[in-house]
Amino acid sequence: MGLTLPPPGVGVILLTLVLIAAVYDVRYRRIPNWLTAGGVLIGLAMNTFLSGWPGQGTFLHDGWPGLRLGLVGFGIAFAVNFVMYLLHFRGAGDVKLMAAIGATVGWANWFGIFLLSAIVAGLLSLIVVFARKRAKTTFWNVTFLISELASGRAPHLKREELDVSSGKASRIPAGATIAIGTVFFLAVAAHFTQ
């Protein structure tokens, strides 16, 4: 997991991106394309023009290293989340949001945000499961999901509640968990880079 604190301008853009996405996802259950596309473009532009990422933070005379950082981050984040989308574990807006984060912070820091967001989502899911008294059902769904994936089958085809786009699925807005994971990531990175 990368723990490089982004330059202040990149950090502000990142926080703005994830907080707006969280509000939209909680309120409207979607993340707008203008936000994710703008996040990708701004992330790539900032990485191209800022130097020292991760270094001293002066303007760059050669933008290729920063652009490469953003493009690799975008590509890896998109690829990982697109696989999750194909398995119906993620929505399309979530894929695009994670790709925008990758374009903004690079693949190593994106991976740290990805892990922390997954932990936050897992903890919130446990709270929801126990609050709704669905522990037994959830246990059987997880067992079924693992069994189907191990057999090379898509779990959502036999159990609609395992499809993130289904009305029967118990969902936590991924935009919110990604925002919380990002804030935790920035706090941890700030602590370890002091």
Structural notes for this entry:
This protein has 194 residues and is mainly alpha-helical. It has 2 domains: 8-131 and 175-192; 133-169. The chain is built from 6 helices and no strands. Helix 1 (8-28) packs antiparallel against helix 6 (174-192), helix 2 (33-49) runs antiparallel to helix 3 (64-86) and helix 3 (64-86) crosses helix 4. The longest helix is centred in the middle third of the chain and has 40 residues, at 92-131. Residues 52-61 have low confidence and may be disordered.
Order of helices and strands: HHHHHH
Count of strand segments: 0
- Count of helices? 6
Which range does the strand content fall in?
Answer: under 5%
